[in-house]
């Protein structure tokens, strides 16, 4: 399979001023050594609780956040880690991002047609008013919106329609890879499935590749070919979606999945309730960072940090847990 993206050892750390009387600086380790690949035409789901670093990871791939502590990002065979903004600019048409809140990223004073027209102009996609108007019509068609909507303003749209506009804007530059950051989390359940189905159709028609970030495991299962689970800035498990949902290996994945109904399993999993709260990125525990909450923690887990390694009999299923090492 052809790799479109490869991320290795990526770290994004932020200095944070501590609030204590003594002052001083602490470091938030938002992304703390992440490696994975995305293959052409697939959807890789990235799940985890809020604060696990998944959004920062997505943003660092499209350079909205700089990898601060090392690692490498290779896109279509090219190392893009050290590229300056000018060198990275042409790649922005190949890589797009869809956000949770399309309203926040749409200018309220521009009609949808003007917004799309701006994008087409800035990136030199169409030349001349007629060609641009035609392309705008085509984009609205592609995302299932009436062409008349081009003259409307963002506040005139429902949440689902706004997300369709967000998708149209991403598609305007003919990208091959789209990072979808919680694209349906703010929508009603019935609208969620419409948008997910639209994303699936577009993937088939346009040969798109997605990195799909979400905290909702059911949504991720529905759209993903493979799924990566993140905990405190690291990927703790990655596998084909079917395998991961039927046979999760990492205790954290097992706990997450035990909380959602799995009718296809024919029985409900036994609910695993985790101890304590999710620690923040300022205070990541030593050893296996999951050890204070893990029902299977051993003495060794406090000291030794597990690596993300393939299971012996399943090379494409990787787990970061000492139980398997
Ligand atoms: Fe639990 Fe230890 Fe595995 Fe970490 S390494 S998930 S603490 S068993």
TrEMBL record:
<dbReference type="InterPro" id="IPR003439">
    <property type="entry name" value="ABC_transporter-like_ATP-bd"/>
</dbReference>
<dbReference type="InterPro" id="IPR013563">
    <property type="entry name" value="Oligopep_ABC_C"/>
</dbReference>
<dbReference type="InterPro" id="IPR017871">
    <property type="entry name" value="ABC_transporter-like_CS"/>
</dbReference>
<dbReference type="GO" id="GO:0055085">
    <property type="term" value="P:transmembrane transport"/>
</dbReference>
<dbReference type="Pfam" id="PF00005">
    <property type="entry name" value="ABC_tran"/>
</dbReference>
<feature type="domain" description="ABC transporter">
    <location>
        <begin position="16"/>
        <end position="257"/>
    </location>
</feature>
<dbReference type="GO" id="GO:0005524">
    <property type="term" value="F:ATP binding"/>
</dbReference>
<dbReference type="InterPro" id="IPR003593">
    <property type="entry name" value="AAA+_ATPase"/>
</dbReference>
<keyword id="KW-0547">Nucleotide-binding</keyword>
<dbReference type="Pfam" id="PF08352">
    <property type="entry name" value="oligo_HPY"/>
</dbReference>
<dbReference type="GO" id="GO:0016887">
    <property type="term" value="F:ATP hydrolysis activity"/>
</dbReference>
<comment type="similarity">
    <text>Belongs to the ABC transporter superfamily.</text>
</comment>
<protein>
    <submittedName>
        <fullName>Peptide ABC transporter, ATP-binding protein</fullName>
    </submittedName>
</protein>
<keyword id="KW-0813">Transport</keyword>
<dbReference type="InterPro" id="IPR027417">
    <property type="entry name" value="P-loop_NTPase"/>
</dbReference>
<dbReference type="InterPro" id="IPR050319">
    <property type="entry name" value="ABC_transp_ATP-bind"/>
</dbReference>
<dbReference type="GO" id="GO:0015833">
    <property type="term" value="P:peptide transport"/>
</dbReference>
<keyword id="KW-0067">ATP-binding</keyword>
